Fold:
Amino acid sequence: MASPLKLYDTMTRSVLPVKAVDGKQFRFYCCGPTVYGPAHIGNFRAFLVQDVLRRTLQISGLNPYHVRNITDVDDKTIRTAQEEGKSLKEFTQYWIDKFHADSEALNILPPHQEPKATDHISQQIDLVQKLIKQDLAYSSSDGSVYFKVSAYEPYGKLSRLKDRETETQFLTSAGEHNDADEYDRESVADFALWKSRKPEDGENFWASPWGEGRPGWHLECSAMSQAYLGENFDLHAGGIDLCFPHHENEIAQSEGATGKPFARHWFHNAHLQVEGEKMAKSLGNMYTLEDLEKKGFSPTEIRYTLISGHYRQPLNFTIASLGAARSAIKKIEKLLRGNLEKIGMTEKAFTQINVTHLSGNWGHFTRAWDGLCNELNVSQTTGGIFAGFVSLEKENLDSDSIKNELSALAGILYALGIQLFKAGESEPVEIPESISAIAEERWQAKQARDWEKADGLRRELSEQGWQILDRKDGFDLKSL
RNA sequence: GGCGCGGUAGCCAAGUGGUAAGGCCGAGCUCUGCAAAAGCUCUAUGCGUCGGUUCGAUUCCGACCCGCGCCUCCA
Structure:
């Protein structure tokens, strides 16, 4: 049988088995993108890890229900939309479409619900009112509303930052003496639930009991997770940077308003480094999917690379690792092809195996499956795939047994979201007539054992970007 | 200063109280006119440093060194 899925929980700092508390559906919420530009591979690492989680839940029979929001109103979206002279809606829709296209290319399953902040203003206002009623929030003279951190005793339990107000004030002064002065807050620790309308907001404001304005960033996740998943649910995911303050504030808002526990399990992925350095705009290493595709890498290769390390460890993303991923995928395909030939199964039939009806017998790929159950240890899983092939080769299994083994493998690959045999990704290139003519001439020279001429023509082809792959009875041409 | 993560072969990266998965690269061999491609084989007495516990530690404990992340709106 499948081992139970275990994951690290940030709240308790321990590895716990995950399960749907209602026994029917595993309900989880992921903090989604802020749509003001193309998502970079660091963003996608988070969404890919969450996707592997969802797929693993699915294969485990935990029936996942996945909600991921879109932040379509905040300082950056408003500012950038204004700069481009577009309405907020038009502007964000463009980047939402781009995000969806990239996600699809990376084989990220769409969430079951994908709520936008601007579609849930009233729910957010309701939540703020509840908090005010309970004296956990107050409105300031300018019509903004703040959460009163000092009134919420458990504040800080997720990130375990105590007394951080004084600490941060003291030590982050290098950064910026916050815009603390700019706002009418009782304490720098307090965070905005509702921001009053400012001239630079342009037309982007909504009516509220406190006057015109817009919701604060943390509010949407509390309001929308409650709207789609209820007051409490099974798991909440996001990048490690969101642990504080975003998730801490979500907890304060949600638990403060309902008096009930919020998410039962907190799932945070580590960040990405690029070529050993922090990924940052100033370093020019914030790759987008498009950047990498321009370098000739396929989305499958990019996906493989981004999920290849343990999600709780920083992953050092390098161009060389993309090449390694390419070779590794080819090797899996090769090993798989050998087995498919043995049992007379086509590549297409393999890709169509129904993975939702797996028996739970992982055969030689048990180690690979155990890796996923073991805190989504993808490194163990990919290692287990190769090791599985090796041990498979050692046995002389009959056709049915091999078929079962390959079904198990199909399940593993589904969980990883790695689609094989997508040769179509690199479009078959038309061979120009001039090139095939040279190649043919070179083949004739070779047959005539005129090595000098043959090698000269081969060099010529290579200069024009084509490589000759000789077979016994002919040759293939490959674009370099 | 607070909270947290890590240091394993040329690179990436798992892992275990009993002697180091896997991938990439590289090397050798086979094949080949020569290459390429393909196939086969090989590649850490070693797991940041120094102590300690132990029959035995890379794995546990302690100290130290180095790198990284978060600390008010960055996945």
